[in-house]
Amino acid sequence: MYDHSLLLRTVSELSGRLLTPHDVDAVPEHVVARLVEVFDLAGAGMALAEAGDLKSTAGCPDVVDALEQIQVAEQTGPCVQAFRTGEVLAIPDLEEYADRWPSYCEAARVRGLGSAVGIPLRLMDQSVGAVGLYGSGRRSWPPEDLEAAVVLADLVTACLVNASKVRQQEQLTEQLQGALESRTVIEQAKGVVAATHEVSIDEAFELIRRHARSHRATVRAVSDAIVSMGLEV
Global pTM? Predict the structure, then answer.
């Protein structure tokens, strides 16, 4: 049975991450560590999708991290199946799947992991990753535990999406700031050239652009040199 108080604390932490900017790369490691505590597991892992397959992984402890990497490399295992089907897969005894996933099950066995659950990370109708829960030896997975784990998985998905949007917004802001700064220095350079050669602003810009082309430089770089170093064009 899961730890109710720790589950609520984890839900609160993840909910808080929805309201503040955070690093998307920090979410998986934080979540898998919490899952181990909440459900008293031998380990937990997470893999995120990239180009239609599970790719990046995080696991706690290291033996699970290694197993998740094997699962991703071979694209077989409970997380992969949950990702593909969009449904929770609970396995009380991994030996029952030894014929289906021989390498994965053998790797789990030598690491002392005998049972597993794969939980999809769902965004609308699309799987974006999966969470894996692991028990040492045979273990039953009560419905209430699985329901609680799915709630956490849904929150994880929301956190990842939110973090991704924040990162995209930050990148857009940086791009806009760069464009604004570039535009400012170009306008300054046009003014300098226009005054120096006693030409119009449009003619000054054409001189700057011609110089940039002939020297295989950008208009921004030439403008910088005009404004800061007195370059003559």
Answer: 0.66
